[in-house]
Amino acid sequence: MQDIRFEKVSDDTTILAIGSLFRRIDNSQWGINLDLSPKAATASLRLSNIPVLARKRVLNPTQDHKPAGYHLVFTIDNTGTWQRKQLGDYPVASVVRAMDKRQHCFCFLANDIEIYLPQMELARALLLHDGYLSRSALDPDCLRSEFSIELVSPDVARVNVLPSSSYPLKSLDDYESRRLLSWILIDPDARASYESIGHYQKLNGYEKGGYRQWEFEFTPPPLPSVSFEVRGRFDKQTRSMLVYEISSLKNIKAAIPDEVQFFHPKLREYVRGEGEGSVRLVGERPHIHSVHDGVEANADTSPVLLRAPAVVFEFSKAFNTRKVAEKKQEGTKGKADEEIGSLASADVSTEESVVGGVLPCAEWTAESDETDDLHLYANKFDCFGLMLDELVAAHGCIIRSKQLRKLPKLYRCNRHLLLDGNPRCLAVVEIESQNRIFHIFEVDTSDGICSLSTQLLRLTSLQGWQEQLRLLEEELTQKSLHWPSSRLKELCGKDGYSGIPHPLTRSVDKGKLPEESIEHWAARFYSWMTSI
Question: What residue numbers bound the domain in which 498 lies?
Answer without folding.
Answer: 374-529
